[in-house]
Amino acid sequence: MTLSRTAAIHMVAQQTSSKPAGVAHGDAATIADISAGLLAPQATTSPKYFYDSLGSHLFEAICELPEYYPTRTEAAIFARHGAEMAQRLGPGATLVDLGAGNCAKAASLFPLLQPRQYVPVDISSDFLQQAVSQLRQRFPAIAITPLVTDLAQPLLLPPSVPAARRQFFYPGSSIGNFTPHEAVAFLRQVRENVGADGGLLIGVDLVKDPAVLDAAYDDAIGVTAAFNLNLLRHLNHLAGANFDPLQWRHVAFFNDAESRIEMHLEARCALSVQWQGGERSFAQGERIHTENSYKYTVAGFTRLLADAGFRVDGTWTDDAHWFAVMHAAAAYA
Ligand code: AVJ
């Protein structure tokens, strides 16, 4: 028997009793963080909860989508202007890669950047360790000292990272997940870690036609919808929640006033959710705000960097001006 998706959803919507809350696998701080977000008047969750194993794979799939221009646009900018970027950094630097993942972006620039030391920083240690052992074989001349940490926590580099000539690398426009206010605070921390003789190479997604932005975050075959909905499975695992993904719909749109893409999960029907230590009812149409992705102008991001103590000494963009890679140096000692 086959059941249409709408019919299946309708049946779910008719259900009155849900599964009981399950076992929570997250630590106490994680459960408390998730709980506080879900209980806020406007329910929210941190984008870091997108990235369980399936979420990381879905993000890799997003990067292959024709609608999702940032990854390939940034790659084209690196391919075209990498040599000029390398001039700004200079050879022999210590390259600190924020949110390194599989380290592929940085590694592809090693021949040009010629760092002496490479410090990939990421929240997921499994992924990182695997990537690092491969890199050590490919680049025996580069000292590789990985660091596992949550970038939402204060950034503290261990003594194994030389203080001189630190160049931070923050590609992919992940800075867009912070509010501009948080972004300045984050970049100030980077600035403190850079000292007087270092810098930052950063990818920034730019303001553009809202139709292009909307499509990039709500693609035709639903990969971004799956990425967003997968968050609910991850919350079930971490907080022992009993979210039913079929009861929720992916919503993404460009908020012009805030200059950001917003992603939400919207309840398809009135429902309630339980998790370890909490519960909440959602009216039909009520949303959980799951992500912001801020879009900047080059001038706006230059100001933001200046607020954080950086002076821009290089900006590279694609012909359509959809994405920018910027290098900034310490503006003062
Ligand atoms: C990883 C934060 C850069 O904001 O474009 C992609 C995440 N979310 N599609 C972005 C994301 C939905 C991505 N960043």
Contiguous low-pLDDT stretches (5 residues minimum) are none
Largest sheet composition: 8 strands, mixed
Classify the helix fraction into a percent range.
Answer: 25-40%
Distance between the first and last residues' Cα: 71 Å
Shape: globular
Order of helices and strands: HHHHEHEHEEEHEHHEEEEEHEE
Give the helix tally.
10
Task: Classify the beta-strand content into a percent band.
Answer: 15-25%
Mean pLDDT: 93
Which distinct ligands sit in these coordinates? N,N,N-trimethyl-histidine
Account of the 3D structure:
The protein is α/β, with parallel strands linked by helices. The protein has ten helices and 13 strands. Strands 1, 2, 3, 4, 5, 6, 12 and 13 form an eight-stranded mixed β-sheet that branches. Strands 7-8-11 form a three-stranded antiparallel β-sheet. A two-stranded antiparallel sheet has the order 9-10. Strand 9 and strand 10 (278-282) form a beta hairpin. Helix 3 (53-62) packs antiparallel against helix 9 and helix 4 (69-89) runs parallel beside helix 5 (104-113). The N and C termini lie far apart (71 Å). 35% of the residues are buried. The mean pLDDT is 93. N,N,N-trimethyl-histidine binds next to helix 9 and strand 11. Residues 62, 70, 172-174, 176-177, 217, 224, 227, 291, 293 line the site of N,N,N-trimethyl-histidine.
List strands and helices in order, with pairings:
Elements: H1 5-14, H2 28-39, H3 53-62, H4 69-89, E1 94-98, H5 104-113, E2 117-122, H6 125-138, E3 143-144, E4 147-148, E5 166-170, H7 180-194, E6 199-205, H8 210-216, H9 223-239, E7 248-255, E8 260-267, E9 271-275, E10 278-282, E11 287-294, H10 298-307, E12 310-317, E13 323-330
Parallel strand pairs: 1-2, 1-5, 2-3, 2-4, 5-6
Antiparallel strand pairs: 6-13, 7-8, 8-11, 9-10, 12-13
The site of N,N,N-trimethyl-histidine has 12 residues, from helix 9 and strand 11.
